[in-house]
Design a protein that fits this description.
The protein has two domains: 139 residues, Aspartate/ornithine carbamoyltransferase (Rossmann fold), CATH 3.40.50; 157 residues, 3-Layer(aba) Sandwich (Rossmann fold), CATH 3.40.50.1370. A five-stranded parallel β-sheet has the order 7-6-5-8-9. Strands 2-1-3-4 form a four-stranded parallel β-sheet, sandwiched between helices. 48% of the residues are buried. It contains 13 helices and nine strands. Helix content is 42%, strand content 14%. The structure holds phosphoric acid mono(formamide)ester (CP) and norvaline.
């Protein structure tokens, strides 16, 4: 049986990413109910608004029943190992979603799980966010091929997954961060190898956004990074998305942020609350893209079951 774990966007081929985005735009009634009679484990080691709600609603819309579990309740690698948790829960659930501090945890779960593991955010990746982001940009700007998409701020879990999605879809992704926080050349070349688009580093934010149809950012201090907050905040001061910076982007450029946001820190309030902002549409698309991904995962599974029955 084909089990499709989705730990990052790079787990999808370009045609598969297109298929997920197409499914995300179908009315719920056209998706059937692939989770009918099944439950889904959603484990959260960190707080969440969008991811928890969009995944719970998506599971219900696909006919299933979500079971929310706090990380400290299962005690990942404290009360029991990641491997024991995944193997046990795989006996109860159609898939396991996990929001974890360490990416290695979802990798270890995927190595032993007999049901799909979906990364709901780790220190390295946030594929569910990237799906919603590219869906929102496609709705706003059309085909992303050849379009410049800029990231100004911390090159983190959200940025890494978004860069992968943009390269798969043929876009030009430009990252502007303080040099000491920039992605390495080997990280950039690994993302560049995924598809026809490109990713590159640009030290000057005003250069990075030139001609961009989309300007993205995220918090400077991600969950779990609180101990380095002072040092990082000082380093990122010149990388705030301001109204002045937005004037250097394409005249139709929009502003994107995965939320939660800190107004006056990584973005000026007049930008995130202004007419160029698409952050609410992005957040709403978390539901549609999560549902599209889950529908796709279970389409793959049922196609594989049919194929093996015919063999
Ligand atoms: N963007 C996002 O993942 O939000 P939550 O942390 O609220 O789930
Ligand atoms: N980079 C942020 C994203 C939150 C959705 C974090 O990891 O905290």
């Amino acid at each position: 049986m084909s089990i499709r774990h989705v730990l990052d966007i790079s787990d999808l081929a370009v045609n598969e990413l297109h298929d997920v985005l197409a499914l995300a735009q179908l009315p719920v009634a056209q998706l059937g109910a692939p989770l009918q009679g099944h439950c889904a484990a959603l484990i959260f080691e960190k707080p969440s608004n969008r991811t928890r709600h969009s995944m719970e609603v998506a599971v219900v819309q696909l006919g299933g029943h979500p079971v929310y579990t706090r990380g400290e309740e299962v005690g990942i690698d404290v009360r029991e190992t990641s491997e024991d948790i995944a193997q046990v829960m795989a006996g109860y659930h159609a898939f396991i979603g996990a929001r974890v501090f360490k990416h290695g945890v979802v990798q270890r779960m995927a190595a032993v799980s007999s049901v799909p593991i979906v990364n709901m955010l780790s220190d390295v990746a946030h594929p569910l966010q990237a799906l919603a982001d590219v869906l929102t940009m496609q709705q706003q700007h059309g085909n992303l091929q050849g379009k410049r998409i800029s990231w100004v701020g911390d090159f983190n879990n959200v940025a890494g997954s978004l860069a992968q999605a943009c390269v798969l879809l043929g876009a030009e992704f430009v990252v502007s961060t303080p040099p000491e926080y920039r992605p390495t050349e080997s990280e950039l070349s690994a993302i560049n190898s995924l598809g026809k688009g490109s990713v590159r580093y640009e030290a000057v934010p005003g250069e990075a956004v030139k001609g961009a149809v989309a300007v993205h950012t995220d918090v400077w201090i991600s969950m779990g990074e609180e101990s380095v907050a002072a040092q990082k905040t000082a380093a990122f001061l010149g990388f705030k998305v301001t109204q002045h910076l937005m004037t250097k982007a394409h005249q139709d450029a929009c502003f994107y942020h995965c939320l939660p946001a800190h107004r006056g820190v990584e973005v000026e309030a007049s930008v995130i609350d202004g007419i160029q902002s698409r952050v609410v549409a992005q957040a709403h698309n978390r539901l549609h893209s999560a549902r599209g991904l889950l529908a796709w995962i279970f389409q793959q599974q049922s196609a594989a079951v049919k194929e093996s029955a015919q063999a």
